[in-house]
Amino acid sequence: MKKGILGLAMTAAIVALTVQPAQAHRQWMLPSSTTLSGDDVWVTVDAAVSNDVFYFQHQPLRLDGVKAIAPDGVEAELKNKATGRYRSTFDLQLDKRGTWRIASMMESVSGTYMLNGKEERLPRGVTTATLAERIPAGATDVKTGVSVNRNETYVTVGEPSLDVFKLENKGIEFVPVTHPNDLVNGEAATFKFLLDGKPVAGLNVTVIPGGIRYRNDLGQQDLKTDAEGKVTINWTMAGMYWINVTTPRAEGAAPAPSRASYVGTFEVSEL
Amino acid sequence: MTMKSRALLIGGTAGLGSVFAAPVMAAAPTTMDVTVNIPRLTVAEYHRPYVAFWVEKQGEAPKTVAVWYDFDMKANEGTKWLRDMRQWWRVSGRSMTFPARGVSSATRAPGSHKISFTRAQLGATAPGAYVLVVEAAREVGGRELLRIPFTWPARAGSGGNAQGQSELGLVSVAFR
Prior knowledge:
heterodimer, A: mainly beta, Immunoglobulin-like, 10-stranded mixed sheet, 19 strands, globular, B: alpha+beta, 5-stranded mixed sheet, 4-stranded antiparallel sheet, 9 strands, 36% strand
């Protein structure tokens, strides 16, 4: 009896742990500028995981999966990478005009299987590539779910361009309707989010303006994508915004349903 | 010279004056003079403002007619802050390359400055309603934007003004 309760509690704890990054703490990348002019153009980016956007006060975001894509689609080098106690940071030399995408995509597999009459849970950090070797011989009732988490931001030198928004048809992907570097307070913006390349109605879209340390009201907007995958956002102020898109929690689903999330940092200008 | 002929027009009664004035009145204005006052500010660190001038007409792409910035710094470094003239950058600047011939010039010191544009420079060849927009942004300072509507064909003489409150003083236009 006691053991049963403990087991249940532990399972709950593990579930909570795997859900944690999307729920309790917010991941973000904060570029020093999103709209740039000039000939020798750089941005520096802070990357962290914290409750309050955009204050680095909890954990750094690991840079292993972070990539920068130049306007022509070619991957560019992250310079001066460093990871400190509370944040990671890196520089990017924007040597091509147009829109750059700074992005990470993390894919992980969670799940359970039965071994010798006991249910076992996959450890953290399993990917689709390592899944086969993590499931022991003789395991049955293997149930797995893939979680795809994207974290992105966009910066533009000169005129905004669209070539970096190529779809991989995996997880939740951002499609500009309004360009992400052409956002102005007082003008509604429309974005489109696709799940595995397809529009899905009802993806949860959370919009939070930065600077929440200095106000009482979080100012969170909870929106949903429509049948075309679109969502229209009315900005409440100028500044940096944190936008999180998640798949709705499946009701009565398998123990490890597939999930996807998207996090983006957007700057809204005051004209 | 310009002032004199306008004085004659306004005076208008002297026989000799009207003889000289008549040909000027007959010809439609071809030039806009913009007088810009850059306020003298008592601040610890002062840099001359960047100022952009552009012309808007409904349904047409805005046309940049002048940009005052640090255009002569080594390696074109002064272009880094062009984007601080945010509205201009969005509507026109970001699609241009710098230095821009006939558009780029140096920043101006506090005081009154006159800058002139031909009708062709303004992109105002078609008759209609236009707006001259002037936006100033100052390093370690603020930003201000003024709009002065005008129509073309224009009437000779004063053609409207706008009073700045922070980064710009009085901006006025006149046609000749």
